[in-house]
Protein backbone atom coordinates (compact mmCIF):
# COMPACT_ATOMS: atom_id res chain seq x y z
CA UNK A 1 0.00 0.00 0.00
CA UNK A 2 1.78 3.14 -1.18
CA UNK A 3 1.03 6.31 0.75
CA UNK A 4 2.07 9.96 0.52
CA UNK A 5 2.67 11.28 4.03
CA UNK A 6 3.62 14.71 5.34
CA UNK A 7 7.41 14.71 5.63
CA UNK A 8 7.80 18.26 6.93
CA UNK A 9 5.66 21.38 7.07
CA UNK A 10 6.05 23.65 4.01
CA UNK A 11 7.69 27.01 4.51
CA UNK A 12 5.95 29.11 1.86
CA UNK A 13 5.12 27.21 -1.32
CA UNK A 14 5.22 23.42 -0.83
CA UNK A 15 8.18 21.56 -2.37
CA UNK A 16 8.60 17.87 -3.22
CA UNK A 17 10.65 17.41 0.00
CA UNK A 18 7.54 18.15 2.07
CA UNK A 19 6.05 14.82 0.93
CA UNK A 20 7.36 11.32 1.56
CA UNK A 21 6.34 8.10 -0.15
CA UNK A 22 6.03 5.20 2.29
CA UNK A 23 4.88 1.63 1.77
CA UNK A 24 3.03 -0.63 4.12
CA UNK A 25 1.15 -3.92 3.93
CA UNK A 26 -2.41 -3.87 2.70
CA UNK A 27 -4.45 -4.10 5.91
CA UNK A 28 -6.68 -7.13 6.52
CA UNK A 29 -10.39 -6.85 7.26
CA UNK A 30 -12.45 -7.34 10.39
CA UNK A 31 -16.17 -8.09 10.34
CA UNK A 32 -18.15 -5.03 9.16
CA UNK A 33 -15.26 -3.53 7.23
CA UNK A 34 -14.49 -2.98 3.54
CA UNK A 35 -11.18 -2.69 1.71
CA UNK A 36 -11.14 0.35 -0.58
CA UNK A 37 -8.80 0.82 -3.53
CA UNK A 38 -8.41 4.41 -4.62
CA UNK A 39 -9.36 5.10 -8.23
CA UNK A 40 -9.45 8.90 -8.22
CA UNK A 41 -7.98 11.33 -5.72
CA UNK A 42 -9.19 14.93 -5.57
CA UNK A 43 -6.51 17.60 -5.07
CA UNK A 44 -7.83 20.75 -3.43
CA UNK A 45 -6.28 23.97 -2.11
CA UNK A 46 -7.48 23.30 1.48
CA UNK A 47 -4.81 20.59 1.79
CA UNK A 48 -2.19 23.36 2.05
CA UNK A 49 -3.90 24.49 5.27
CA UNK A 50 -3.79 20.96 6.73
CA UNK A 51 -0.03 20.77 6.09
CA UNK A 52 0.48 23.88 8.18
CA UNK A 53 0.25 24.06 11.97
CA UNK A 54 -1.42 27.49 11.96
CA UNK A 55 -4.81 27.47 13.73
CA UNK A 56 -7.68 26.70 11.37
CA UNK A 57 -11.20 25.28 11.21
CA UNK A 58 -9.80 21.74 10.91
CA UNK A 59 -6.92 20.04 12.72
CA UNK A 60 -3.46 20.04 11.16
CA UNK A 61 -1.88 16.87 9.85
CA UNK A 62 0.84 15.39 12.00
CA UNK A 63 4.26 14.74 10.48
CA UNK A 64 4.19 11.22 9.06
CA UNK A 65 0.42 11.23 8.60
CA UNK A 66 -1.19 10.34 5.24
CA UNK A 67 -2.28 13.54 3.45
CA UNK A 68 -6.05 13.91 3.58
CA UNK A 69 -8.24 13.97 0.49
CA UNK A 70 -11.54 13.01 -1.06
CA UNK A 71 -11.46 9.89 -3.22
CA UNK A 72 -13.59 7.78 -5.48
CA UNK A 73 -12.65 4.30 -4.39
CA UNK A 74 -13.60 0.78 -5.37
CA UNK A 75 -14.68 -1.83 -2.87
CA UNK A 76 -12.25 -4.67 -3.55
CA UNK A 77 -13.22 -6.81 -0.56
CA UNK A 78 -16.25 -6.55 1.72
CA UNK A 79 -17.22 -7.89 5.13
CA UNK A 80 -19.93 -5.24 5.38
CA UNK A 81 -23.42 -6.22 4.12
CA UNK A 82 -24.08 -2.67 2.89
CA UNK A 83 -21.28 -2.80 0.30
CA UNK A 84 -20.45 -5.34 -2.37
CA UNK A 85 -17.20 -6.01 -4.15
CA UNK A 86 -17.03 -3.74 -7.20
CA UNK A 87 -19.08 -0.91 -5.70
CA UNK A 88 -17.73 2.56 -6.35
CA UNK A 89 -17.92 4.88 -3.35
CA UNK A 90 -17.12 8.44 -2.43
CA UNK A 91 -14.63 8.16 0.41
CA UNK A 92 -11.99 10.19 2.17
CA UNK A 93 -9.11 7.77 1.87
CA UNK A 94 -6.53 10.49 1.24
CA UNK A 95 -3.27 10.14 -0.65
CA UNK A 96 -2.94 6.36 -0.52
CA UNK A 97 -3.78 3.31 -2.59
CA UNK A 98 -5.78 1.31 -0.07
CA UNK A 99 -7.83 2.05 3.01
CA UNK A 100 -9.93 -0.04 5.37
CA UNK A 101 -13.27 1.52 6.28
CA UNK A 102 -16.13 0.45 8.52
CA UNK A 103 -18.48 2.07 5.98
CA UNK A 104 -19.16 5.25 7.95
CA UNK A 105 -19.64 8.22 5.64
CA UNK A 106 -19.21 6.23 2.42
CA UNK A 107 -21.62 7.18 -0.37
CA UNK A 108 -22.29 5.02 -3.41
CA UNK A 109 -21.23 6.65 -6.68
CA UNK A 110 -23.65 5.78 -9.46
CA UNK A 111 -25.40 7.35 -12.41
CA UNK A 112 -22.72 9.96 -13.17
CA UNK A 113 -21.21 10.57 -16.63
CA UNK A 114 -17.80 9.96 -14.99
CA UNK A 115 -17.27 8.54 -11.47
CA UNK A 116 -14.82 11.38 -10.80
CA UNK A 117 -17.71 13.86 -11.05
CA UNK A 118 -18.37 12.87 -7.44
CA UNK A 119 -15.21 14.86 -6.66
CA UNK A 120 -15.93 17.80 -8.94
CA UNK A 121 -19.27 19.00 -10.27
CA UNK A 122 -21.48 16.79 -8.07
CA UNK A 123 -19.05 16.86 -5.17
CA UNK A 124 -17.39 19.27 -2.79
CA UNK A 125 -16.31 21.97 -5.30
CA UNK A 126 -19.69 22.03 -7.07
CA UNK A 127 -21.54 22.22 -3.79
CA UNK A 128 -19.19 24.99 -2.61
CA UNK A 129 -19.93 27.03 -5.72
CA UNK A 130 -23.69 26.51 -5.42
CA UNK A 131 -23.98 27.23 -1.71
CA UNK A 132 -21.70 30.27 -1.63
CA UNK A 133 -23.18 31.90 -4.70
CA UNK A 134 -26.87 31.27 -4.08
CA UNK A 135 -27.19 31.33 -0.29
CA UNK A 136 -24.65 34.06 0.48
CA UNK A 137 -24.24 35.89 -2.82
CA UNK A 138 -28.00 35.92 -3.51
CA UNK A 139 -27.61 37.01 -7.15
CA UNK A 140 -30.61 38.64 -8.88
CA UNK A 141 -31.21 38.61 -12.64
CA UNK A 142 -29.39 41.48 -14.34
CA UNK A 143 -26.84 41.88 -11.55
CA UNK A 144 -23.11 41.68 -12.19
CA UNK A 145 -21.25 38.74 -10.64
CA UNK A 146 -17.45 38.58 -10.63
CA UNK A 147 -15.47 35.42 -9.87
CA UNK A 148 -11.75 34.65 -10.07
CA UNK A 149 -10.00 31.31 -10.69
CA UNK A 150 -12.82 31.21 -13.22
CA UNK A 151 -11.69 28.13 -15.13
CA UNK A 152 -11.16 26.15 -11.92
CA UNK A 153 -13.22 23.67 -9.94
CA UNK A 154 -15.27 26.17 -7.95
CA UNK A 155 -15.06 29.33 -10.08
CA UNK A 156 -16.19 27.69 -13.32
CA UNK A 157 -19.33 26.41 -11.61
CA UNK A 158 -20.02 29.73 -9.86
CA UNK A 159 -20.03 31.56 -13.18
CA UNK A 160 -22.19 28.99 -14.96
CA UNK A 161 -24.81 29.05 -12.19
CA UNK A 162 -24.78 32.86 -12.20
CA UNK A 163 -25.45 32.78 -15.95
CA UNK A 164 -28.33 30.33 -15.40
CA UNK A 165 -29.73 32.83 -12.89
CA UNK A 166 -29.66 35.62 -15.48
CA UNK A 167 -26.64 37.59 -14.29
CA UNK A 168 -23.89 39.36 -16.16
CA UNK A 169 -20.80 37.31 -15.35
CA UNK A 170 -17.18 38.42 -15.43
CA UNK A 171 -14.57 35.68 -14.97
CA UNK A 172 -10.99 36.39 -13.96
CA UNK A 173 -8.30 33.85 -14.77
CA UNK A 174 -4.82 33.57 -16.25
CA UNK A 175 -4.54 34.56 -19.90
CA UNK A 176 -4.36 32.26 -22.92
CA UNK A 177 -6.35 29.04 -23.11
CA UNK A 178 -7.96 29.47 -19.68
CA UNK A 179 -9.22 32.94 -20.59
CA UNK A 180 -10.54 31.70 -23.92
CA UNK A 181 -12.26 28.69 -22.33
CA UNK A 182 -14.10 30.85 -19.80
CA UNK A 183 -15.60 33.07 -22.48
CA UNK A 184 -16.03 30.73 -25.44
CA UNK A 185 -16.89 27.41 -23.79
CA UNK A 186 -18.39 28.38 -20.45
CA UNK A 187 -20.19 31.38 -21.93
CA UNK A 188 -19.27 34.04 -19.38
CA UNK A 189 -19.92 37.59 -20.63
CA UNK A 190 -16.33 38.65 -20.11
CA UNK A 191 -13.11 36.87 -19.27
CA UNK A 192 -10.05 38.76 -18.02
CA UNK A 193 -6.38 37.98 -17.50
CA UNK A 194 -5.38 38.78 -13.91
CA UNK A 195 -1.74 39.14 -15.02
CA UNK A 196 -2.52 41.89 -17.54
CA UNK A 197 -0.76 45.21 -16.79
CA UNK A 198 -4.11 46.95 -17.38
CA UNK A 199 -6.13 44.51 -15.29
CA UNK A 200 -7.81 47.14 -13.08
CA UNK A 201 -8.98 49.21 -16.07
CA UNK A 202 -10.12 46.07 -17.90
CA UNK A 203 -12.19 45.00 -14.91
CA UNK A 204 -13.82 48.43 -14.67
CA UNK A 205 -14.69 48.24 -18.36
CA UNK A 206 -16.08 44.70 -18.03
CA UNK A 207 -18.34 45.76 -15.14
CA UNK A 208 -19.74 49.13 -16.35
CA UNK A 209 -22.62 48.98 -13.85
CA UNK A 210 -20.39 48.04 -10.93
CA UNK A 211 -20.19 44.71 -9.10
CA UNK A 212 -23.10 43.31 -7.11
CA UNK A 213 -21.65 39.93 -6.13
CA UNK A 214 -17.95 39.24 -5.81
CA UNK A 215 -17.41 35.54 -5.17
CA UNK A 216 -14.07 35.58 -3.37
CA UNK A 217 -11.77 32.69 -4.26
CA UNK A 218 -8.40 34.36 -4.37
CA UNK A 219 -7.85 37.59 -2.36
CA UNK A 220 -4.67 39.53 -3.16
CA UNK A 221 -4.46 41.85 -6.14
CA UNK A 222 -7.81 40.71 -7.55
CA UNK A 223 -9.62 41.76 -4.39
CA UNK A 224 -7.86 45.14 -4.54
CA UNK A 225 -9.12 45.68 -8.09
CA UNK A 226 -12.67 44.62 -7.22
CA UNK A 227 -13.06 46.81 -4.11
CA UNK A 228 -13.57 50.24 -5.73
CA UNK A 229 -16.12 48.77 -8.17
CA UNK A 230 -18.45 47.26 -5.57
CA UNK A 231 -22.00 48.63 -5.60
CA UNK A 232 -24.05 49.59 -2.57
CA UNK A 233 -25.44 46.44 -0.92
CA UNK A 234 -22.90 44.20 -2.68
CA UNK A 235 -22.46 40.67 -1.32
CA UNK A 236 -19.11 38.94 -0.96
CA UNK A 237 -19.19 35.20 -0.19
CA UNK A 238 -15.65 34.57 1.10
CA UNK A 239 -14.86 31.08 -0.11
CA UNK A 240 -11.07 31.14 -0.30
CA UNK A 241 -7.99 33.34 -0.54
CA UNK A 242 -5.58 31.16 -2.48
CA UNK A 243 -3.24 34.10 -3.20
CA UNK A 244 -2.30 34.02 0.50
CA UNK A 245 -2.06 30.29 1.25
CA UNK A 246 1.72 30.15 0.81
CA UNK A 247 2.38 33.46 2.58
CA UNK A 248 4.80 33.35 5.50
CA UNK A 249 4.06 36.88 6.73
CA UNK A 250 1.54 39.69 6.33
CA UNK A 251 2.06 41.89 3.25
CA UNK A 252 4.08 45.06 3.76
CA UNK A 253 2.41 48.45 3.56
CA UNK A 254 -0.03 50.59 5.48
CA UNK A 255 -2.80 49.12 7.65
CA UNK A 256 -5.78 49.06 5.31
CA UNK A 257 -8.34 47.67 7.74
CA UNK A 258 -9.85 51.13 8.48
CA UNK A 259 -10.32 51.79 4.74
CA UNK A 260 -11.94 48.40 4.23
CA UNK A 261 -14.19 48.69 7.27
CA UNK A 262 -15.25 52.19 6.18
CA UNK A 263 -16.13 50.95 2.71
CA UNK A 264 -18.12 48.00 4.05
CA UNK A 265 -20.06 50.46 6.20
CA UNK A 266 -20.71 53.17 3.61
CA UNK A 267 -21.68 50.74 0.86
CA UNK A 268 -23.59 48.42 3.27
CA UNK A 269 -21.58 45.48 1.93
CA UNK A 270 -22.21 41.98 3.28
CA UNK A 271 -19.06 39.86 3.43
CA UNK A 272 -19.43 36.37 4.82
CA UNK A 273 -17.02 33.47 5.06
CA UNK A 274 -18.20 29.87 4.93
CA UNK A 275 -16.80 26.36 5.16
CA UNK A 276 -18.75 23.95 3.02
CA UNK A 277 -18.44 21.05 5.47
CA UNK A 278 -20.91 22.88 7.76
CA UNK A 279 -23.66 22.67 5.14
CA UNK A 280 -23.86 19.06 3.97
CA UNK A 281 -26.64 17.98 6.30
CA UNK A 282 -29.23 20.48 5.11
CA UNK A 283 -27.79 21.78 1.85
CA UNK A 284 -26.37 18.84 -0.11
CA UNK A 285 -29.67 17.20 -1.16
CA UNK A 286 -31.22 20.33 -2.75
CA UNK A 287 -27.89 21.07 -4.44
CA UNK A 288 -27.60 17.53 -5.84
CA UNK A 289 -31.16 17.66 -7.18
CA UNK A 290 -30.73 20.93 -9.05
CA UNK A 291 -27.22 20.18 -10.28
CA UNK A 292 -28.36 16.81 -11.64
CA UNK A 293 -31.09 18.58 -13.61
CA UNK A 294 -28.63 21.10 -15.05
CA UNK A 295 -26.16 18.36 -15.91
CA UNK A 296 -28.81 16.19 -17.62
CA UNK A 297 -30.07 19.19 -19.59
CA UNK A 298 -26.51 19.95 -20.74
CA UNK A 299 -26.67 23.38 -19.07
CA UNK A 300 -23.54 22.99 -16.98
CA UNK A 301 -20.16 21.40 -17.51
CA UNK A 302 -16.90 20.74 -15.70
CA UNK A 303 -13.42 20.47 -17.11
CA UNK A 304 -11.29 18.00 -15.24
CA UNK A 305 -7.52 18.27 -15.24
CA UNK A 306 -6.64 14.56 -15.06
CA UNK A 307 -3.24 13.71 -13.71
CA UNK A 308 -2.02 10.15 -14.29
CA UNK A 309 -0.68 7.96 -11.51
CA UNK A 310 -0.25 7.93 -7.76
CA UNK A 311 3.34 9.25 -8.04
CA UNK A 312 2.17 12.46 -9.70
CA UNK A 313 0.18 13.79 -6.74
CA UNK A 314 2.75 16.08 -5.02
CA UNK A 315 3.82 17.82 -8.22
CA UNK A 316 0.21 18.32 -9.31
CA UNK A 317 -0.67 19.74 -5.91
CA UNK A 318 2.27 22.17 -5.98
CA UNK A 319 1.12 23.23 -9.47
CA UNK A 320 -2.47 23.76 -8.32
CA UNK A 321 -1.36 26.42 -5.83
CA UNK A 322 0.62 28.13 -8.62
CA UNK A 323 -2.28 28.11 -11.08
CA UNK A 324 -0.73 25.48 -13.35
CA UNK A 325 -3.95 23.45 -13.35
CA UNK A 326 -6.57 23.89 -16.03
CA UNK A 327 -9.80 22.68 -14.45
CA UNK A 328 -10.56 20.47 -11.46
CA UNK A 329 -7.47 18.47 -10.52
CA UNK A 330 -8.15 14.75 -10.20
CA UNK A 331 -5.40 12.15 -9.89
CA UNK A 332 -6.24 8.96 -11.76
CA UNK A 333 -4.58 6.07 -9.89
CA UNK A 334 -5.30 3.69 -12.77
CA UNK A 335 -6.91 0.28 -12.49
P1 LIG B 1 -8.97 25.94 -8.71
O1 LIG B 1 -9.33 24.75 -9.55
O2 LIG B 1 -9.65 27.22 -9.01
O3 LIG B 1 -7.41 26.11 -8.78
C1 LIG B 1 -6.74 27.14 -8.14
C2 LIG B 1 -6.63 28.38 -9.03
O4 LIG B 1 -6.38 29.51 -8.22
C3 LIG B 1 -5.46 28.38 -9.98
O5 LIG B 1 -5.68 27.59 -11.13
C4 LIG B 1 -5.35 29.85 -10.33
O6 LIG B 1 -6.30 30.15 -11.33
C5 LIG B 1 -5.82 30.52 -9.03
N1 LIG B 1 -4.70 31.16 -8.32
C6 LIG B 1 -3.58 30.58 -7.86
N2 LIG B 1 -2.80 31.50 -7.29
C7 LIG B 1 -3.45 32.69 -7.40
C8 LIG B 1 -3.13 34.04 -7.04
N3 LIG B 1 -1.99 34.35 -6.41
N4 LIG B 1 -4.03 35.01 -7.31
C9 LIG B 1 -5.18 34.70 -7.94
N5 LIG B 1 -5.52 33.45 -8.33
C10 LIG B 1 -4.66 32.46 -8.05
O7 LIG B 1 -9.19 25.59 -7.17
P2 LIG B 1 -10.58 25.30 -6.45
O8 LIG B 1 -11.69 25.65 -7.37
O9 LIG B 1 -10.53 23.97 -5.87
O10 LIG B 1 -10.58 26.36 -5.26
C11 LIG B 1 -10.89 27.73 -5.48
C12 LIG B 1 -10.96 28.44 -4.12
O11 LIG B 1 -12.06 27.92 -3.38
C13 LIG B 1 -9.73 28.25 -3.25
O12 LIG B 1 -9.43 29.45 -2.59
C14 LIG B 1 -10.18 27.20 -2.25
O13 LIG B 1 -9.46 27.26 -1.05
C15 LIG B 1 -11.63 27.59 -2.07
N6 LIG B 1 -12.51 26.56 -1.53
C16 LIG B 1 -13.19 26.83 -0.37
C17 LIG B 1 -14.08 25.96 0.17
C18 LIG B 1 -14.83 26.33 1.41
O14 LIG B 1 -15.46 25.48 2.01
N7 LIG B 1 -14.82 27.58 1.81
C19 LIG B 1 -14.28 24.62 -0.44
C20 LIG B 1 -13.56 24.44 -1.70
C21 LIG B 1 -12.70 25.38 -2.20
P3 LIG B 1 -6.04 31.15 -12.57
O15 LIG B 1 -4.79 30.69 -13.24
O16 LIG B 1 -7.26 30.95 -13.38
O17 LIG B 1 -5.95 32.54 -12.03
Automatic annotation (TrEMBL):
InterPro entries: ADH-like_C, ADH_N_2, ER, GroES-like_sf, MDR_fam, NAD(P)-bd_dom_sf
Top-level taxonomic group: Bacteria
Enzyme nomenclature, EC number: 1.3.1.-
All residue ranges annotated as the Enoyl reductase (ER) domain in the record: 14-331
CDD domains recorded: PGDH
GO molecular function: oxidoreductase activity, acting on the CH-CH group of donors, NAD or NADP as acceptor
Cited SUPFAM superfamilies: GroES-like, NAD(P)-binding Rossmann-fold domains
Keywords assigned by UniProt, alphabetized: Oxidoreductase
Oxidoreductase recorded as keyword: yes
Gene3D superfamilies to which the protein is assigned, alphabetical: Medium-chain alcohol dehydrogenases, catalytic domain, NAD(P)-binding Rossmann-like Domain
UniProt protein name: NADPH-dependent curcumin reductase
Provenance organism: Marinobacter litoralis
Protein encoded by which gene: curA
Amino acid sequence: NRQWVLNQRPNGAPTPDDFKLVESDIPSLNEGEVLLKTRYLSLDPYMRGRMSDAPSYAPSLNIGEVIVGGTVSEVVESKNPKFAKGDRVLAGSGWQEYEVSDGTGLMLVEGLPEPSYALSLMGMPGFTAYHGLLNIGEPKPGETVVVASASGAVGSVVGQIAKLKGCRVVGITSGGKKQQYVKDTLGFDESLDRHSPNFEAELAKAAPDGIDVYYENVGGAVFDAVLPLLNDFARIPVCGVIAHYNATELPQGPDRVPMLAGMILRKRIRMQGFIIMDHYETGYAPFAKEMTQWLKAGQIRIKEDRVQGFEAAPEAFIGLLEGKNFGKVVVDFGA
